[in-house]
Amino acid sequence: MAQRERTTSRDTELPHRPGHRLRLTAATAAALALTGGLLTTAVPTATAAPRAELPATDADFDADGYADVATAASLAYVNGKAQAGAVAVTYGKAGGVGRSVSYTQNSPGVDGSAEKGDHFGTDMAYGDFDRDGYDDLAVGVAGEDVGRDKDGGSVQILWGSASGLKGGSTVKDPRPSKHDWFGGYLEAADFNGDRKTDLAIGTGTTATVDILRGGFKRNGATDGRYTVTPRIHGNGEVGVQNLHSGDANGDGVEDLIVNGYENDTQRGSNANFWVPGSRSGLKVSAAKKLMPGVITDLGDTDKDGYDDVVIGNYWDSGIAGSARGGAVHVVHGSRGGPSAGDREKFTQNTSGVPGSGEKGDSFGNELDLGDINGDGNLDLIVGAPGETVDGVSNSGAVTILYGAANGSGITGRGAKLLTQNTPGVPNDNEKHDFLGTDVHADDLNGDRRADVVIGAYGENSRNGAVYPLLSQEDGSLKGTAGIYPGTAGISGTGTPRLGANFAD
Description:
Layout: E1 20-21, H1 26-30, E2 39-40, E3 68-73, E4 86-93, E5 96-103, E6 120-127, E7 136-141, E8 154-158, E9 168-171, E10 185-189, E11 198-202, E12 209-212, E13 225-228, E14 242-246, E15 255-261, E16 270-275, E17 288-290, E18 295-299, E19 308-313, E20 327-331, E21 343-346, E22 366-370, E23 379-384, E24 397-401, E25 416-418, E26 435-442, E27 451-456, H2 459-462, E28 465-471, E29 477-478, E30 501-502
Parallel strand pairs: 1-18
Antiparallel strand pairs: 2-9, 3-4, 3-30, 4-5, 6-7, 7-8, 8-9, 10-11, 11-12, 12-13, 14-15, 15-16, 16-17, 18-19, 19-20, 20-21, 22-23, 23-24, 24-25, 26-27, 27-28, 28-29
C-alpha cells in the first residue's frame, strides 16, 4: 500500500497524527466501565477482576492500577514483511516503568497475519470494550487487504487481561465498498451516555465517520452502528484527518471533535468540528465549527465543569510579523459547547514560556493534558519536534505549561523546556531526532502525579524511541533509560519509527 504513516509533506517530515482523549473529567471518569463494536472472535472471554484501589489512570490493560502506554511503530518489519507494523506496550508498575512488550498480527490469538504494507498501528484507541474490568486496545490496520479489497483496512481489538493484552478480534468494516484505509483514525468514548464505550472510526478518504455503539462482544455482536458526516472534504479528496473526544458542554455525554478541511470553502482550509453527544448519540445537526489546528485534547483546565478544547496549530505565528513557529489555543467549554470567543493563545513568545518562536519549530504539533505536579490542576505538554537546539536542527523539544495554582487555567508562568540535553532526559540532542513527535501524560507508578512520556521517531536513524520521565516530588522529571525497538521486541530493520503515535 501507499505509505500511511502519520507524517506531513513538509521538508522536515514532522509527524501529524491524532491527539489524546483525557479521562480526568467527571464525564470521562464515568466512561471507564464501557464497551462497543462489530467483531469476529479469536480468543475466549477473560475472567473479570476488580481494579486496584489506586489513582485513576488512562489505559490499564492488566487492571493493576498503574497506567500502561501503547506506542505504534507502524512502519516496522515483521518476519521480513516491510511496513507490516507493530505496537509496543510499556506497562506501569509500583516505583517506575515496567516491561515493554510488542504485539503484531503474528502475535498469538491476534486475527490475520503480518503482511507487507498493513501498517498495524496506524492509529490506536483504548477502552474497556467488553466491560470485563480490563482496558482493551483498538488498533488500526489501515493498509490491510480484505479479500479482493486492496488497502480496504481493518481494526483489531487486543483484549486486556491480568497478564496484559492477550489475543484479539477483528472489527468488521460496516461499509467496505465505500472507502479504503478503514482504521486510519480511531477514537473511543461514550457518545450516548449509556456507560458503554463506542468506537469512532475514520478513514482519511471520506468525510464520514462510522460510530460502532458500545456493547462489544467477542462473538461479533454489538449494539448497532450509525454514521456522522461533518462539513469536510471527502470522497477521494481529503477526508477525516483526526478524531478526539471530551465533554465540552458539561452534559455528562462525551462529544466528538472531527478535524478535516471545510467542504464549503477553498480547498486547504483546515477546521475542527465539534459534534455534541446526546442520549441518542452524536448529533451532527448541532455541530459547531472551531478554529483550525491538526491536534486537539480536551480537559477541564479551569475547573468550571466544562471540558476545554486545546488545539495545536504548528503553522501559526507567535505574534504579528514573527516567524511561524506554531501555537496552542485553549478554547473554553461552556453550556453551549466550545466558545470561539473565549480562548487563550500560547506560543514560544508568550511571557514565561522558554525559547522563542522560529520558523519550522512546529510548537503545538503534538500535545496532551495531565496533572504533572500533582496539585490538582491540569498541565499541558506541548511537542515542538522541529525545534533546533544549540544549533542541532530538528533535534526537537517539549514544553510543559502548568495550570495556575488557583485553578484558573493554563499559564505560561513557570513553564519548563525539555530537550535531550536537559538533566533527567536520556540520550543527547542529535540532528533529526524529532523529540516531541508525540507526547503523553499518565501516572505510570501510582504516585498521583502524571508522568511525561515523549516520542522521538527520528532517534537512531528513524528507528525511533520513547522516553518515560517520572514526575518527582520536587517538580523535576527523571528518566533513566529510553525504550527502543530492540528493547521492545520490534525489528530495527528499515525505519520502524517507534514513538510516532501513542494510544489516546
